[in-house]
Amino acid sequence: MNGRLSYRILRMPLIFPFETSFGRQTERVPIIFRLEKDGITSYSECVTDVDPFYSYESNSTVMSIIKGYLGKMVASAGDHDEFTRSASLIKGHNMAKAALEMLLWDHEARKAGKSLHSMLGHGKGYAEVGVSIGMESIKSLIARVDDSVRMGYRRIKVKIKRGREIEILSAVRDAFPDIVLTADANSDYSIKDMDTLRKIDRYNLKYIEQPFDHDDLIYHGRLAKEISTPICLDESITSPEKALKALEIGACSVINIKPGRVSGLGNSMKIAEICREFKAHVWVGGMLETGIGRSYNVSLASSSLIDYPGDTSPNSRYFHRDIVANPFTMKDGRISPSSEPGAGYIVDEKAMNEYTVESGVIYEW
């Protein structure tokens, strides 16, 4: 046997529920992939969940496309670039592609004896950390924001939805007039809500994230001309090409890069380069990842191309017990990437086993 690709599906309760305009989440059900090749073992995490609410991808679509197509491409790929070229034959399924592309990045870094963030280049040695806070009662929300400010987070992001935006933003801004504050709408608004969105200017937000549909550029461009609050795009940016189009038409001036959404780290770096060309701002978002997925995000966020704080909170914010033995810690609003070979995670096998609800081998060669 020259190599093996296997998986585990975990069920991990969150420390506290996380509510967005999509709904209320109380647990994460991540898929962890394992690549054994050349005597090296690598892990990665797919950022889908059970339900296709963030995008059309879900755990079931990921397992189907990887078992049917992408797993064989990993076996035949010499490196992450070759895998990306082969995988481009398959339309969409970016999160599935990203999980395997990142496996190969980690494998190559470990084989070379280099850290992932040094392999990515443009390293500045740390990631600036912001925090994303779900919707709660106003009393609970203010308490959570207060805790986050005291902990030193460099940006506070609150989730909003139609009908609650004024209540939430008024309460937070009144209580914390000087913090760096942003709002994430997760596509909950339409062009009919323009009057409501104009009112958001009064709260001095760093940006408002993805107010309109998950694949829209045109209406975001129209909104950008109507309000002074900068527009940040998340779900709409699925590739470097989409990022280029968005910036060319003025649909945004900030982009949230999630490696899973854009097919991996290679495209993430391309998008960051495009943002620099357009003098747009960029940061690295999160999807409630475990320590494995978080290690890739921190490596990316440590690039000098990333100029805004991202959603790279320490592991302890979301899980009582993570599946890594070396969780990240934050100091002065910063997290440092690992200097060890690869993405730097150390898997806690006992914790992984306790959370596992399904496992199997996808492909051997």
> In DSSP terms, counting alpha (H) and pi (I) runs of 4 or more, how many helices?
12
Total strands: 15
SSE pattern, N- to C-terminal: EEEEEHHHHEEHEHEHEHEHEHEHEHE
Q: Compute the separation of the termini in Å.
A: 6 Å
CATH class of the largest domain: Alpha Beta
Show unreliable segments: none
Question: Explain this structure to me?
Answer:
The chain is an alpha/beta fold and 365 residues long. It folds into 2 domains: 3-113 and 348-364, 2-Layer Sandwich (Enolase-like, domain 1); 118-335, Enolase-like C-terminal domain (TIM Barrel). 35% of the residues lie in helices and 20% in strands. It contains 12 helices and 15 strands. It has helices spanning 59-76, 80-87, 94-112, 116-120, 138-151, 165-175, 194-198, 218-226, 240-248, 265-277, 291-301, 349-355, and strands at 3-10, 12-20, 23-28, 31-37, 40-46, 127-128, 131-133, 156-159, 181-184, 208-209, 231-233, 254-257, 281-284, 334-335, 356-364. The strands form 4 sheets. The protein has a 7-stranded parallel beta sheet with strand order 7-8-9-10-11-12-13. Helix 2 (80-87) runs antiparallel to helix 3, helix 5 packs across helix 6 (165-175) and helix 9 (240-248) runs parallel beside helix 10. The longest helix has 19 residues, at 94-112. It starts with a strand and ends with a strand. The model has no long low-confidence stretch (mean pLDDT 96).
